[in-house]
Fold:
Amino acid sequence: MNSLLESFGKPDHDRWMGAALAEAEFAAEKDEVPIGCVIVHNGLVIGRGHNLTESLQDPTAHAEMIAITAAAEALGSRRLLDCTLYVTLEPCAMCAGAIVWRGFLILSMERPTPKRSV
Ligand SMILES: [Zn+2]
Structure:
């Protein structure tokens, strides 16, 4: 509870959301749905991802799932405690389930995402 309250208002909050937005831009450049995600642990990005459902032809290749897999690899653990997940759009039901199941302390979201390039 304290971690949630403490995280808001810290300058790093904008920094990490900016990193998630940069990931969303990578997705847009690939003509993917422009959603980006980063996972932060002890002040370091340990997982990042952007939507790759079209590129991989994988319906589960959402930004959050890719970032979660990368973060689990980085920590060498399936439990991602004391991590903060930043995502540029409200997660779908699949990702929301994974986020809850993985034990994240905080979910930050709701920044405008870049528009898909035409
Ligand atoms: Zn999703």
Remarks:
- The CA atoms of residues 46 and 71 lie 5 Å apart.
